[in-house]
Amino acid sequence: MSAETLKATAVDVVELNKLVNSAYRGDSSRQGWTTEADMLDGTRIDEDILKEIIQRPDTTVLLYKDGSRLLGCVELRTDEKKIYLGMLSVMPNTQGKGIGKRLLKEAEVYALEQGCNKIYMTVISVRTELIDWYVRHGYHLTDERKPFKMPDVRFGIPKQELEFVVLEKIILPLSL
């Protein structure tokens, strides 16, 4: 079966939780290049928060599946006339194979379908390799910075002082 992109439902929560946490935290995340394990302790997300995200009327979580295997996801939340992109996750042992790039393209299609022409995101400022990756895919750094605050210590205990930078991209139908 070939790879496809689908919208997440409550049925996907357990598998999504494993994917996101494996991409960002713990030893499994070190297999890929998106790990935050050296910056943060704790988990990235849990099943209850994922259920809430999926149920929000302004949010869609896209899944990238190859057959029955979940290999990637991205959260897209409508915020007035722009889309917030978050939780872009790719299974660590499949990073570097174009899955993240495909999810970014799907996010652009989704944004246009929602009548939005801008996508923005926050990235931890010290994640220079990740920021550079987004810049190579058409995003640019804004001058905006946001404090790194976790609403619950279960989702990250910083090991150092952290802050977010904001990146954005203007989406035009011809850029797809």
Written overview of the protein:
By secondary structure, this protein is α+β, with helices and mostly antiparallel strands. The protein has one domain: Gcn5-related N-acetyltransferase (GNAT) (Aminopeptidase, 3-Layer(aba) Sandwich), CATH 3.40.630.30. It has 5 helices and 9 strands. The strands form 2 sheets. The chain has a 7-stranded mixed sheet with strand order 1-3-4-5-6-9-7, with helices on both faces. Strands 2-8 form a two-stranded antiparallel sheet. Strand 4 and strand 5 form a beta hairpin. The model has no long low-confidence stretch (mean pLDDT 86).
Q: What low-confidence regions span 5 or more consecutive residues with pLDDT below 50?
A: none
By CATH reckoning, the class would read: Alpha Beta
Mean pLDDT: 86
Number of helical runs? 5
Beta-strand fraction estimate: 25-35%
Q: What is the architecture at the second tier of CATH? A: 3-Layer(aba) Sandwich
Query: What is the terminal-to-terminal distance?
Result: 25 Å
The overall number of domains is 1
Strand order in the largest sheet: 1-3-4-5-6-9-7
Helix % is 25-40%
Overall outline = globular
Rg on CA atoms, Å: 15 Å
Strand tally is 9
How is the main sheet built? 7 strands, mixed
Write the CATH homologous superfamily: Gcn5-related N-acetyltransferase (GNAT)
Classify the fold: give the CATH topology.
Aminopeptidase
Class inferred from helices and paired strands? alpha+beta
N to C succession of SSEs: EHHEHEEEHEHEEE
